[in-house]
Amino acid sequence: MPDNPTKTQGAQTPVADTPTEPAVTADLAAEHGLNAAEYDRVLATLGRTPTLTELGLYSVMWSEHCSYKSSRRHLKKLPTSGPQVIQGPGENAGVVDIGNGQAAIFKMESHNHPSFIEPYQGAATGVGGILRDVFTMGARPVALLNALSFGAPDHAKTQHLVSGVVAGIGGYGNCVGVPTVGGETRFHSRYNGNILVNAMAVGLADADKIFYSAAAGVGNPVVYVGAKTGRDGIHGATMASAEFSEDSAEKRPTVQVGDPFTEKLLIEACLELMATDAIVAIQDMGAAGLTSSSAEMAGKGGVGIRLDLDRVPTREDAMTAYEMMLSESQERMLMVLKPGREDQARAIFEKWELDFAVIGALTDTGRMTLVNGGRTVADVPLDSLTDDAPNYDRPHVPSEPRPLLRPDEVPAADDMGQAILDMVGAPDLASRRWIWEQYDHTVMGDTIARPGGDAAIVRVHGTNKGLALTADCTPRYCEADPFEGGKQAVAETWRNLSAVGAEPLAVTDCLNFGNPERPEIMGQFVGCIEGMAQACEALGYPVVSGNVSLYNETEGQAILPTPTLGGVGLIRNLDHRASPGIKRAGDAVFLLGETRGHLGASLYAAHALGHDAGAPPPVDLDLEMRAGGLVRQEIALGRLDTVHDLSDGGLAEALATLMLAGDGYGLDVRLPNDPDGQPLAAHAALFGEDQGRYLVCLPADRAEAFAHACAEARVPVERIGDTVAGPQLAIAGVATLALDDLRAAHERFLPTLMA
Amino acid sequence: MKARVHITLKPGVLDPEGKAIGRGLAALGYDGVGEVRQGKVVELDLADTEPQAARDRVDAMCRDLLANTVIERYEIELI
Amino acid sequence: MKARVHITLKPGVLDPEGKAIGRGLAALGYDGVGEVRQGKVVELDLADTEPQAARDRVDAMCRDLLANTVIERYEIELI
Amino acid sequence: MKSAVIVFPGSNCDRDMMVALEAATGRPPVAVWHRETSLPADLDLVALPGGFSYGDYLRSGAIAGRSPVMADVKARAERGLRVLGVCNGFQVLCEAGLLPGALMRNTGIHFVCRDVHLRVDNARTAFTNAYGQGQVIRGHVAHHDGNYFCDDDTLTALEDQGRVAFRYCAADGAVTPDANPNGSRNNIAGVLNAAGNVLGMMPHPERLIAPELGGTDGRGVFDSLVAALADA
Ligand SMILES: Nc1ncnc2c1ncn2[C@@H]1O[C@H](COP(=O)(O)OP(=O)(O)O)[C@@H](O)[C@H]1O
Ligand SMILES: [Mg+2]
């Protein structure tokens, strides 16, 4: 836009509202989520009353969602570097090296509030948003995962929410053609009024062709591409930063509608343009749309930006500057191009039938200047929107520690066989088939391990390498002890990756908590982060991207603290990998790790006592390292192909899974002893959730060598039995269960709930 | 008695389907077609015999299930 | 001028979505709801000014694209 | 064998189809953008891949079925060119009138992605000769609108003329309602045109071409085409 000067004297530009807009006052600022001190800060920064558009900019950029004002100082505690890390947190997604000049790019994000209000569109647009975070960095998306937390199965809204969310995730991912390969799903009454929908996307790119968001080059054109802007989801970012009340569904403005078809075209068009060298910087328009994308790009690049809003493609009449800047219309991207490359880029986007408009230019002012209808409607220092946004040290108190729960404090079932069937069929452990069969998990032709195992495996196209992917968290543990819970969530993803034979590379996270202005919630947040940090540090498993979702409360009832972790691992040779299903009769069955019968915060205790109780199982990170390393080594050497890690539901769940995932084989086992070789109570041995354990099967003639390898690696191990040809789970002195009965129990819950 | 419920997206809500249909018509050479919006119709056979009661009940069904008033609006027609 | 096209499944063609809505209503406790059928409405803004010409053109659009006459029938309403 | 894969806006199995064709034929297929008005000369096969052309808006395959390239696909099919439509490609072929019937919403309402058993109902076609007549193979479906519908006369004609290529069945080959993932009439999974040179099928043979992907039973479709060409 040659007629636009790239140098403006910000403070001297007359800045004016559109005449019909309301005057900005402290009250209006409060309605925009800015408290009195924050509004004073705006006044001081500008030295005048902001225009409505400027108020809008501050309100979204200083919202919790965009500014991380409660979490920033704590997120710094997470380890984010390592030899494998190409890009840690701070960009649209994290980037790790996977060898051969290739990189995996991934991130997880929440779409909790919109999904509660409009489950289909809320979940769908969550998938769309996280995909854009990944392909904006130059990656072709190759996998999606989702972590879902719903209310109690019998809560009035649950069925409707499950149905809409699952359909929305499928509707978007299936259409875009990226396989949804894994995730997790839980049900708990603490999510009754505030479900969690966390979506993770993973992409692949050449390590030397990664695109970043820092704008550079004064005078370079700022380009808008994708769908047109409408009045969708104005104030989505502030909505994601406020508590719910009963009438929010009524008051809130429209949630966004996703268009996966346009997203698919946008992916192809962006990747086509990225194959040229026309792009200087690129960023998707996510929460707070044009505002945050332009402010962040220019802010990171240390330049200024001037936008002529009359050039923004709109799909509704008479949109104001305020509306255009705050719209959260989907499927849009902002780019800075090299000068003179506009026509080349335009041709590509027009071929894909997408909008393309040069809407501004970079300046050297360090300010964001917005022009609309011949008026300068905003002119603010960029730093004040980004780096200098509020940053709070909120008061936090640690959670009350819970006492250990001894096995004799938890009633043992009279019929242990029935207890196993109940556990395998319980809402938290029942098969998720009803969900993942609605997701296209095989499109792209590289899905090597489909949903249902410990980690999904997606082949790196055209190679014999694979990425292993998993998403995990145990909110019960986080509630009982945030620090141990944070550690455990990291360790569980690490274990799931190890169980398929993948070397864990890095994690992404999505930290879902209640209202951070309550010291006990802030205490959970800080505790979980510190636990995560310790585990990531010890396991050499850095956090490379993530997202924080606070204010997940309704009527003062907070969700369980839910730091969802998304783990990514690398399998260098796909010929050597493992899965949970029994593959042969006559294999020796080993249990790795220590079994102490820890029932505290376990699913079994919650069922038997009717409430969560006791301290969660501690995680011994040193043992994790040794056990995970051994399992990976044995898999990589081609000596081990049947592995399942133990988590919710303990040994009972693991034994059942080995059979359910197998081809009709059975198990003949006895219960393990405690580390001192003493017998444990049956319910503690079966359902205790001691950490750092794996169940493995391998041909009996290798049993001795395997036991030896374990001893050498200082991994406690006990041979507990054998695989057999008959479809029966026989646990000596406890119960004998038919595979058909296990399957019926396991498959019943979701189809019945959703019928 | 029969009820017909027309469910359409609220004005201003993105209608990707309508947009695609519009493009499809244009590609087939139909010009002069402006905005295209698409909606749903649900037809219900009702046991009710009293129109006002029937209308109220269908209205409740719309709010409970048939429409999502966050993005959609509906119109009830008794026939 | 505006046209509204109602597209419904032919009688005798099974309508799984209608059925699912019916089951959903029953599950919510709405009784006395008989058959439920679901259809589509497409609303078009037209440049035409002459009703018969408009109707003919929309009819052609229906046969060409908007309806699949193997399974659907349509009705045109000008407004 | 020289093949082409048509790419519509929203196609998303085009690459998968190309990988499978290249593996079977030893030569990379040509990608043809939907806006082309003619196909390359001397083709032996044109494939319409799976995906969500035009977002499946209005009806699956409806808008794509009327895109510019389809006129030449029709003309060449009439002259005997082999045409394979998989999933969305099958929907496009029906919408374009190259195959009878229509693919409606699955009776279960949901999208369904799972392995199924298929019975090869006619192994004497260019697309199925690598299989045995009545052989039960593994298939893989991933669709929302796979419920094949046609009127009674069409159904009779399809069945009498051996134009049902595949049916969904149980592991033992029995054609039962339980084995039907989408409510298709008579469990139909794939149909041929009267001349036998156009096949539409909902299951994705290109997703089962290697043991690590879950099986190799899909290869037969591509191997059949190669064999048919060699015989010709
Ligand atoms: N929402 C979901 N989407 C896709 N797959 C899911 C979802 N929820 C659970 N799964 C799959 O179901 C299986 C069991 O999940 P989970 O109990 O969390 O496994 P684990 O204990 O090994 O982490 C996993 O393979 C997981 O990927
Ligand atoms: Mg696991």
From TrEMBL, chain A:
Chief place of localization: cytoplasm
Classification via InterPro entries: PRibForGlyAmidine_synth_PurL (IPR010074), PurL_linker (IPR041609), PurM-like_C_dom (IPR010918), PurM-like_C_sf (IPR036676), PurM-like_N (IPR016188), PurM-like_N_sf (IPR036921)
Record carries keyword Ion transport: no
Positions of the catalytic residues: H65, H111
Positions annotated to bind Mg(2+) 2: D133, D284
Location within or outside the cell: Cytoplasm
Keyword Signal found: no
Positions with biased composition (Polar residues): 1-12
Catalysed reactions, semicolon-separated: N(2)-formyl-N(1)-(5-phospho-beta-D-ribosyl)glycinamide + L-glutamine + ATP + H2O = 2-formamido-N(1)-(5-O-phospho-beta-D-ribosyl)acetamidine + L-glutamate + ADP + phosphate + H(+)
Domain PurM-like N-terminal: from-to ranges: 90-204, 452-571
Enzyme class at the top of the EC tree: ligase
Phosphoribosylformylglycinamidine synthase linker domain sequence ranges: 28-69
Any single biological process term in GO: 'de novo' IMP biosynthetic process
PurM-like C-terminal domain: residues covered: 218-370, 584-730
EC number(s) recorded for this UniProt protein: 6.3.5.3
Top-level taxon: Bacteria
Membrane-spanning residues: none
Residues binding substrate, per UniProt: S110, H111, N112, H113, R132, Q256, E328, S329, Q330, S549
Pathway info: Purine metabolism; IMP biosynthesis via de novo pathway; 5-amino-1-(5-phospho-D-ribosyl)imidazole from N(2)-formyl-N(1)-(5-phospho-D-ribosyl)glycinamide: step 1/2
Binding positions (Mg(2+) 1): E109, N547
Positions of the UniProt region annotated as Disordered: 1-20, 383-406
Family listed: Belongs to the FGAMS family.
The protein's role, per its UniProt record: Part of the phosphoribosylformylglycinamidine synthase complex involved in the purines biosynthetic pathway. Catalyzes the ATP-dependent conversion of formylglycinamide ribonucleotide (FGAR) and glutamine to yield formylglycinamidine ribonucleotide (FGAM) and glutamate. The FGAM synthase complex is composed of three subunits. PurQ produces an ammonia molecule by converting glutamine to glutamate. PurL transfers the ammonia molecule to FGAR to form FGAM in an ATP-dependent manner.
Subunit structure: Monomer. Part of the FGAM synthase complex composed of 1 PurL, 1 PurQ and 2 PurS subunits.
Record's protein name: Phosphoribosylformylglycinamidine synthase subunit PurL
Automatic annotation (TrEMBL), chains B, C:
Listed EC numbers: 6.3.5.3
Listed GO CC annotations: cytoplasm
InterPro entries documented for this protein: PurS, PurS-like_sf
Origin superkingdom: Bacteria
A GO MF label: phosphoribosylformylglycinamidine synthase activity
Major subcellular location class: cytoplasm
Localization (cell): Cytoplasm
Reactions that this protein is recorded to catalyse: N(2)-formyl-N(1)-(5-phospho-beta-D-ribosyl)glycinamide + L-glutamine + ATP + H2O = 2-formamido-N(1)-(5-O-phospho-beta-D-ribosyl)acetamidine + L-glutamate + ADP + phosphate + H(+)
One GO term of the biological process aspect: 'de novo' IMP biosynthetic process
Keywords: ATP-binding, Cytoplasm, Ligase, Nucleotide-binding, Purine biosynthesis
A Pfam family annotated for this UniProt entry: PurS
Pathway: Purine metabolism; IMP biosynthesis via de novo pathway; 5-amino-1-(5-phospho-D-ribosyl)imidazole from N(2)-formyl-N(1)-(5-phospho-D-ribosyl)glycinamide: step 1/2
Recorded family membership: Belongs to the PurS family.
Function of the protein: Part of the phosphoribosylformylglycinamidine synthase complex involved in the purines biosynthetic pathway. Catalyzes the ATP-dependent conversion of formylglycinamide ribonucleotide (FGAR) and glutamine to yield formylglycinamidine ribonucleotide (FGAM) and glutamate. The FGAM synthase complex is composed of three subunits. PurQ produces an ammonia molecule by converting glutamine to glutamate. PurL transfers the ammonia molecule to FGAR to form FGAM in an ATP-dependent manner.
Subunit-structure text: Part of the FGAM synthase complex composed of 1 PurL, 1 PurQ and 2 PurS subunits.
The protein's name in its UniProt record: Phosphoribosylformylglycinamidine synthase subunit PurS
Native organism taxonomy: Bacteria, Pseudomonadati, Pseudomonadota, Alphaproteobacteria, Rhodothalassiales
Automatic annotation (TrEMBL), chain D:
Catalytic activity annotation: L-glutamine + H2O = L-glutamate + NH4(+); N(2)-formyl-N(1)-(5-phospho-beta-D-ribosyl)glycinamide + L-glutamine + ATP + H2O = 2-formamido-N(1)-(5-O-phospho-beta-D-ribosyl)acetamidine + L-glutamate + ADP + phosphate + H(+)
A molecular-function term among this protein's GO annotations: glutaminase activity
Entry's Gene Ontology cellular component terms: cytoplasm
Domain of life: Bacteria
One family name in Pfam for this protein: GATase_5
Active site: C87 (nucleophile), H204, E206
Enzyme Commission number(s) from the entry: 6.3.5.3, 3.5.1.2
Gene3D superfamilies tied to this protein: 3.40.50.880
Compartments in which it is found: Cytoplasm
An example Gene Ontology biological process: 'de novo' IMP biosynthetic process
UniProt pathway annotation: Purine metabolism; IMP biosynthesis via de novo pathway; 5-amino-1-(5-phospho-D-ribosyl)imidazole from N(2)-formyl-N(1)-(5-phospho-D-ribosyl)glycinamide: step 1/2
Entry keywords, A to Z: ATP-binding, Cytoplasm, Glutamine amidotransferase, Hydrolase, Ligase, Nucleotide-binding, Purine biosynthesis
Assembly, per entry: Part of the FGAM synthase complex composed of 1 PurL, 1 PurQ and 2 PurS subunits.
Purpose of the protein: Part of the phosphoribosylformylglycinamidine synthase complex involved in the purines biosynthetic pathway. Catalyzes the ATP-dependent conversion of formylglycinamide ribonucleotide (FGAR) and glutamine to yield formylglycinamidine ribonucleotide (FGAM) and glutamate. The FGAM synthase complex is composed of three subunits. PurQ produces an ammonia molecule by converting glutamine to glutamate. PurL transfers the ammonia molecule to FGAR to form FGAM in an ATP-dependent manner.
Protein name, UniProt field: Phosphoribosylformylglycinamidine synthase subunit PurQ
Lineage, uppermost ranks: Bacteria, Pseudomonadati, Pseudomonadota, Alphaproteobacteria, Rhodothalassiales
